[in-house]
Design goal:
With 167 residues, the protein is mainly alpha-helical. 57% of the residues lie in helices and 4% in strands. It is built from 6 helices and 2 strands; from the N terminus they run ααββαααα. α2 packs across α3. It is rod-shaped and about 105 Å long.
Protein backbone atom coordinates (compact mmCIF):
# COMPACT_ATOMS: atom_id res chain seq x y z
CA UNK A 1 0.00 0.00 0.00
CA UNK A 2 2.93 2.30 0.62
CA UNK A 3 3.97 2.14 -3.03
CA UNK A 4 0.38 2.75 -4.16
CA UNK A 5 0.15 5.85 -1.93
CA UNK A 6 3.46 7.20 -3.27
CA UNK A 7 2.34 6.59 -6.88
CA UNK A 8 -1.03 8.32 -6.27
CA UNK A 9 0.74 11.32 -4.66
CA UNK A 10 3.25 11.60 -7.52
CA UNK A 11 0.44 11.52 -10.11
CA UNK A 12 -1.52 14.19 -8.23
CA UNK A 13 -4.39 11.83 -7.35
CA UNK A 14 -4.64 12.86 -3.72
CA UNK A 15 -8.37 12.06 -3.60
CA UNK A 16 -7.51 8.37 -4.25
CA UNK A 17 -5.40 8.25 -1.07
CA UNK A 18 -8.50 7.76 1.11
CA UNK A 19 -9.26 4.51 -0.80
CA UNK A 20 -5.82 3.12 0.12
CA UNK A 21 -6.47 2.78 3.87
CA UNK A 22 -6.58 -0.61 5.62
CA UNK A 23 -6.44 -3.94 3.85
CA UNK A 24 -7.00 -3.06 0.20
CA UNK A 25 -6.74 -4.96 -3.04
CA UNK A 26 -6.03 -3.20 -6.31
CA UNK A 27 -7.29 -4.22 -9.70
CA UNK A 28 -5.75 -2.81 -12.85
CA UNK A 29 -7.69 -2.98 -16.07
CA UNK A 30 -6.95 -1.98 -19.60
CA UNK A 31 -9.83 -1.70 -22.03
CA UNK A 32 -13.45 -2.15 -20.97
CA UNK A 33 -13.85 -0.82 -17.42
CA UNK A 34 -17.49 -1.91 -17.27
CA UNK A 35 -16.51 -5.55 -17.83
CA UNK A 36 -14.00 -5.38 -14.94
CA UNK A 37 -16.62 -3.77 -12.69
CA UNK A 38 -19.05 -6.60 -13.55
CA UNK A 39 -16.51 -9.28 -12.72
CA UNK A 40 -15.71 -7.63 -9.37
CA UNK A 41 -19.40 -7.16 -8.55
CA UNK A 42 -20.20 -10.81 -9.34
CA UNK A 43 -17.23 -11.99 -7.28
CA UNK A 44 -18.28 -9.75 -4.36
CA UNK A 45 -21.77 -11.34 -4.41
CA UNK A 46 -20.25 -14.76 -3.77
CA UNK A 47 -17.58 -13.57 -1.31
CA UNK A 48 -18.87 -11.35 1.49
CA UNK A 49 -15.38 -10.24 2.57
CA UNK A 50 -14.78 -8.39 -0.72
CA UNK A 51 -16.03 -4.83 -0.38
CA UNK A 52 -15.59 -2.40 -3.26
CA UNK A 53 -14.43 0.91 -1.76
CA UNK A 54 -14.32 2.82 -5.02
CA UNK A 55 -12.38 3.14 -8.24
CA UNK A 56 -9.91 5.42 -9.95
CA UNK A 57 -11.31 5.87 -13.43
CA UNK A 58 -8.94 8.03 -15.44
CA UNK A 59 -8.58 11.17 -13.38
CA UNK A 60 -11.86 10.70 -11.50
CA UNK A 61 -12.40 8.83 -8.24
CA UNK A 62 -15.67 6.88 -8.32
CA UNK A 63 -17.75 6.11 -5.24
CA UNK A 64 -18.95 2.49 -4.71
CA UNK A 65 -22.41 3.45 -6.02
CA UNK A 66 -20.90 4.74 -9.27
CA UNK A 67 -18.87 1.53 -9.64
CA UNK A 68 -22.15 -0.43 -9.28
CA UNK A 69 -23.71 1.76 -12.01
CA UNK A 70 -20.68 1.11 -14.20
CA UNK A 71 -21.16 -2.63 -13.67
CA UNK A 72 -24.79 -2.34 -14.88
CA UNK A 73 -23.72 -0.96 -18.26
CA UNK A 74 -24.12 -3.22 -21.26
CA UNK A 75 -20.93 -4.43 -22.95
CA UNK A 76 -19.09 -2.03 -25.22
CA UNK A 77 -19.99 -3.98 -28.37
CA UNK A 78 -23.71 -3.84 -27.55
CA UNK A 79 -23.59 -0.08 -26.92
CA UNK A 80 -21.70 0.49 -30.19
CA UNK A 81 -24.24 -1.66 -32.06
CA UNK A 82 -27.12 0.39 -30.60
CA UNK A 83 -25.45 3.64 -31.67
CA UNK A 84 -24.82 2.27 -35.16
CA UNK A 85 -28.44 1.11 -35.39
CA UNK A 86 -29.73 4.51 -34.28
CA UNK A 87 -27.58 6.22 -36.91
CA UNK A 88 -28.55 3.74 -39.61
CA UNK A 89 -32.33 3.75 -39.00
CA UNK A 90 -33.15 7.07 -40.73
CA UNK A 91 -30.98 6.16 -43.73
CA UNK A 92 -32.61 2.73 -44.03
CA UNK A 93 -36.08 4.28 -43.86
CA UNK A 94 -35.17 6.80 -46.55
CA UNK A 95 -33.73 4.07 -48.78
CA UNK A 96 -36.95 2.07 -48.37
CA UNK A 97 -39.06 5.08 -49.35
CA UNK A 98 -36.91 5.84 -52.36
CA UNK A 99 -37.05 2.20 -53.48
CA UNK A 100 -40.85 2.20 -53.14
CA UNK A 101 -41.34 5.07 -55.60
CA UNK A 102 -40.27 3.23 -58.78
CA UNK A 103 -41.87 -0.01 -57.59
CA UNK A 104 -45.22 1.71 -57.02
CA UNK A 105 -44.94 3.55 -60.33
CA UNK A 106 -44.32 0.27 -62.15
CA UNK A 107 -47.33 -1.29 -60.42
CA UNK A 108 -49.59 1.61 -61.42
CA UNK A 109 -48.43 1.48 -65.04
CA UNK A 110 -49.03 -2.28 -65.15
CA UNK A 111 -52.55 -1.81 -63.78
CA UNK A 112 -53.28 0.82 -66.44
CA UNK A 113 -51.98 -1.52 -69.14
CA UNK A 114 -54.18 -4.34 -67.81
CA UNK A 115 -57.30 -2.12 -67.85
CA UNK A 116 -56.72 -0.67 -71.33
CA UNK A 117 -58.45 -2.75 -74.07
CA UNK A 118 -56.23 -3.93 -76.92
CA UNK A 119 -56.96 -2.95 -80.53
CA UNK A 120 -59.99 -4.79 -81.94
CA UNK A 121 -61.42 -5.73 -78.52
CA UNK A 122 -64.58 -4.21 -77.18
CA UNK A 123 -64.15 -2.83 -73.68
CA UNK A 124 -65.56 -5.11 -71.01
CA UNK A 125 -68.66 -3.72 -69.25
CA UNK A 126 -67.07 -4.35 -65.86
CA UNK A 127 -63.92 -5.89 -64.39
CA UNK A 128 -63.80 -8.97 -62.21
CA UNK A 129 -64.82 -8.16 -58.67
CA UNK A 130 -66.95 -5.19 -59.70
CA UNK A 131 -70.72 -5.29 -59.83
CA UNK A 132 -72.50 -4.58 -63.07
CA UNK A 133 -74.73 -1.51 -63.11
CA UNK A 134 -78.43 -2.52 -62.84
CA UNK A 135 -80.52 -2.05 -65.94
CA UNK A 136 -82.88 0.91 -65.63
CA UNK A 137 -86.15 0.69 -67.48
CA UNK A 138 -87.44 3.86 -68.97
CA UNK A 139 -90.89 4.82 -67.69
CA UNK A 140 -93.23 7.27 -69.34
CA UNK A 141 -94.50 10.22 -67.30
CA UNK A 142 -98.03 8.79 -67.42
CA UNK A 143 -96.89 5.52 -65.79
CA UNK A 144 -95.16 7.42 -63.00
CA UNK A 145 -98.31 9.42 -62.25
CA UNK A 146 -100.59 6.35 -62.33
CA UNK A 147 -98.36 4.52 -59.82
CA UNK A 148 -98.54 7.29 -57.21
CA UNK A 149 -99.89 5.85 -53.95
CA UNK A 150 -103.50 6.42 -53.09
CA UNK A 151 -102.49 7.09 -49.50
CA UNK A 152 -100.87 10.37 -50.52
CA UNK A 153 -104.20 11.58 -51.92
CA UNK A 154 -106.03 10.58 -48.72
CA UNK A 155 -103.54 12.44 -46.56
CA UNK A 156 -103.89 15.56 -48.66
CA UNK A 157 -107.71 15.50 -48.37
CA UNK A 158 -107.62 15.01 -44.60
CA UNK A 159 -105.24 17.95 -44.16
CA UNK A 160 -107.46 20.14 -46.25
CA UNK A 161 -110.60 19.08 -44.36
CA UNK A 162 -108.94 19.69 -41.00
CA UNK A 163 -107.95 23.20 -42.04
CA UNK A 164 -111.47 24.04 -43.11
CA UNK A 165 -112.99 22.93 -39.77
CA UNK A 166 -110.52 25.03 -37.76
CA UNK A 167 -111.66 28.21 -39.49
Amino acid sequence: MTLARIAASDLGRTEALELLVGPTGLTFAEGDAAAVAKVLRDFAKDHAKLIIKGALFGTEVLAPERVAELAELEPREVLLAKIAGALQAPMAAMAGLLAALPRNLATMIQQLIDKTPTAGEAPAPFQAGEEAAPEIEAATPAEVIDEAPAEAEATTTENTAGSAEEE
